[in-house]
Amino acid sequence: MSTDNLSLTLSALAHPARRSILARLSSGEMTVAELSEPFDMTGPAVTKHLNVLERAGLIERLRDAQRRPCRLRPGPLKDVFDLVDPYRKFWDESFDRLDELLAEQGAENAG
């Protein structure tokens, strides 16, 4: 994935409403009306968020007779995971060291 596409994906993920939309789509296709239900925003505002997600390649809009459902396209999310996954080792090791330090301090305070 090019840096520009990754930047589009990260920018799309920056807004909590868009992350919520993606989370809802992870359970299956939904129409714009269904996606709008939990939000206190207008239909056009939801559509703007969907446009950002679609440009980033995170969703696709389908045409099914009268229905126009949206579907999650997880490919760009894997690219984000690939970007941040190398840092997992750092965090795991940091938490392991913190656990050891806390255990040592607990032992010292108990004795």
How are the secondary structure elements laid out?
Blueprint: H1 3-13, H2 16-25, H3 32-36, H4 43-55, E1 59-61, E2 70-72, H5 75-84, H6 86-110
Antiparallel strand pairs: 1-2
Helix pairs in contact: 1-4, 1-5
Distinctive features:
Arc Repressor Mutant, subunit A; 111 residues; elongated; two-stranded antiparallel ribbon; 2 strands; mainly alpha; single chain
Please, could you describe this protein's structure?
The chain is mainly α. The chain has a single domain (3-83), classed as Arc Repressor Mutant, subunit A (Orthogonal Bundle). It contains 6 helices and 2 strands. The chain has helices at 3-13, 16-25, 32-36, 43-55, 75-84, 86-110; strands at 59-61, 70-72. Strands 1-2 form a two-stranded antiparallel ribbon. The chain starts with a helix and ends with a helix.
Number of folding domains? 1
CATH topology: Arc Repressor Mutant, subunit A
Q: Structural class, judged by helices and strands?
A: mainly alpha
Can you count the beta strands? 2
Question: What is the C-alpha radius of gyration, as a whole number of Å?
Answer: 20 Å
DSSP summary: helix tally: 6
Task: Trace the largest sheet across and list its strands.
Answer: 1-2
Low-pLDDT runs: none
Report the sheet-strand fraction.
Answer: 5-15%
What shape does the CA trace take?
A: elongated
Order of helices and strands: HHHHEEHH
Distance between the termini: 55 Å
* Mean residue pLDDT: 90
Helix content: 55-70%
- Report the biggest beta sheet as strand number plus sense, adding barrel if it closes: 2 strands, antiparallel
